[in-house]
Amino acid sequence: MNQPASTPTPASAPGTLNVRVNPQALIGGIVVAVVLLGFGFKLGAKGSADATDAPPAQVLDEEQPATLDEDLPALDPAQGPEIAPTPTTLAETPIELDPVVTTVAETMPPPVTDEPSGGLEVGSSLPVVLADGSTIDVPLPEGWVADENGNAHSEGPPWMNVFIANFNWGHEEAITKYLDYLAGEVKDFDHSKSQSVTVSPNIVAFSYFQYGGTVQWSNGGSRAVYGFVQIGTGTNGTTTIVDWWSDSDVTDEVARSHFKYFAAQFGV
Amino acid sequence: MSTSCPNCGASTATLHRFCWRCGTDLLRNDKKRISQYAVHPGESVNSLNVVTSIMPQASGDAPQVFRFALIAAVGVPLLLAIFGFVAVALATAAVSVPVLYLFYFYDTNEWDDAPGPVIGLVVGASALLGVVSAQVQSWLVKPAGRSLVDGYAFDRLTLVSSLIGAVLAVALAQVGPVTLARRPKFDDLIDGLTFGVAAGSSFAAGETLTASWKYLANSPLRIDDAETMRWIADLLEVGLFKPLIVGAVVGLVVAAFSGVGEGPGRFTYSYLTTSLLALVLLFLWYAGNGALAGIANGSTRVVASLAWSLVVAGYLILRLRVVMHTALIEAAAEAAARGSSLKSANIGVGYCPECGVALIDGANFCSTCGTSVRAHSRTARKDIITERTAS
């Protein structure tokens, strides 16, 4: 074995074992690299979405009026109270969709506390049975009551209803299926194009659309109906559908405040 | 005064603790030396030290640096989430382990002065195949196949999606490192194992980023009321457990392909059985997580999921260490029995990076601390050659 005349110590000899990247520089480099990559992917994803989405993702804006479809048949406010409190076929037929046992607590954060009702007073609550058999109470706007079907409706003008259910559908599929369902229930069904809004951390996708048409009553009569549908898909894959609708006249202001209220349920 | 190794017959000095040729613990006459990991003899083989398991060539030189680097790489996404940058945290978590590996490859010269093929095949190709895997899974496993009336349930779809995910990961993530392991330059088991883990983590990053792309695109840069604890659990899953678990199973497969001894890797019976084992383990992890996702209570679900990942990751880390330790000991013993020397053996004057003591000419192990010379990084080996030339 060849031995050098003067054996250098490993720690001090130039060009020997311990010539390495400076540890602090290495750790710092890793931190900077992962952060830059993280921001890069985030901005890249947003850029690609902006480039391909049509219409582009839309952030829910307080100033944005929740306009109703102007093509809907004109409603007669005077007729509303006479028929609206009766649960319509819409309130019953969603059961045919066989919604899964609702797990609203998993997908909906608590209402925003600084503006708990999106401009509405919180009144009673809607008991929702969870997957484990326990029950939570989803707060409802003032003047609303829960019904025996697990849905809810207002007790006075503008006579509105809400249908809440969870499904194992993917987000886009939920929109498609629910549109198909509504189209089967509502004559002359018309709807606005689905739009996405900015989402909360536990909702991976959130969309909404408006719809309108005519509901056929069992006595042969018919009334115009319209609604707002919100679709939120949680990180656990569950898609929650909230459909609030009415067959009586609702002003834009009321529609907007109700929409904001339910959007708040999603943390939007 | 000298004696001979009872295992291989090599001539050793009386004061030597380990046989320089086969690594036998001469003090205890223990040739398996389970309590002294051949990569880092200060630890038992049955240790859960992640760094000395997945980055073996840093062990003797800079284990603390990469330990802190790993903590930093995992910690950065958590900090970002705490401050509300959850989308950035998610992307950061996905890429943190592959980035860490790039620095490791650079620091140890694991790519042997040829970074292009290693980065391209191990990191680039694997990440791209991860993207492909995520797309294929979203195409094959459609929610429409699930019963719409059952709510969440551990059903056939969960099992099918777990199986598809496991098959795609095991089949695709090994493509890059196996291609490299066929080259004589990278045919060593340690190369195969390390490149396999790096490829698996890059594959996991590709899958995660693809699956999260919509969220990354639509979520705001910063969220004030992020559910921090929930995100931290998700980030640990995405940034630590998934790259570790997918990486470890791929590392085991590629290590089996590389083989215990020297020479280019081959498709052997051992490779086949290891691939099946990897498939089963990954399937169990995916399916277990799928089953635990049905727990209604959020906190219980998060804790149970993390605990399950910890169990699987722990088992795989132990398995990696056993494979590496056994391979280092067995290859040296086989070479000693044949009277040949390993390609990685010390030539001329060299010093053990672990303890700094001079190595014997032709040594496979440090006779003082028992570290395998084969586990030295290429940087350290280059230093040894430089010293020989200088002398």
Structure report:
The complex is a heterodimer of chains A (268) and B (391). With 268 residues, chain A is α+β, with helices and mostly antiparallel strands. Chain A is built from six helices and ten strands. In chain A, the strands form two sheets. In chain A, strands 3, 4, 5, 6, 7, 8, 9 and 10 form an eight-stranded antiparallel beta sheet that branches. A two-stranded antiparallel ribbon of chain A has the order 1-2. The longest helix of chain A is centred in the N-terminal third of the chain and has 30 residues, at 23-52. In chain A, 40% of the residues are buried. Chain B is mainly α and 391 residues long. Chain B has one domain. Chain B has twelve helices and four strands. At the A-B interface, helix 1 of A face helix 2, helix 3, helix 8, helix 9 and helix 12 of B.
Task: Name a few traits of the molecule.
heterodimer; A: 268 residues; alpha+beta; Protein Transport Mog1p, Chain A; 2 domains; eight-stranded antiparallel β-sheet; two-stranded antiparallel ribbon; 6 helices; 26% helix; elongated; disordered N terminus; B: 391 residues; mainly alpha; two-stranded antiparallel sheet; 12 helices
